[in-house]
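Cast an eye over this sequence plus tokens and explain the fold to me:
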Amino acid sequence: MMNQAHREMEEAVAEWLESCEGHKRYLATTQRLFTVFARSWQGSRRYLAEAFTDYREALLRDSGYKLLEVAEVFPTRRPQSE
């Protein structure tokens, strides 16, 4: 018979593994978005990564996320004033 702690551990593991699949999907779709963005990029290749980061943040804001929520998705960026 399975005790409560063992059952909770199995549930936590299953949830964690499921979230990993979600993260893999996020990375794959981000790569696809970057590829399409890069194909249409007209500026210097030097600024491509920065422009793409700005583009992703703008997409989130345009989709209704508040600036603070955008900063949580991209925590490596310095906070900007609203």
Remarks:
- The CA atoms of residues 71 and 78 lie 8 Å apart.
- The radius of gyration is 18 Å.
- The chain has a mean pLDDT of 84.
- Residues 1-40 form one domain.
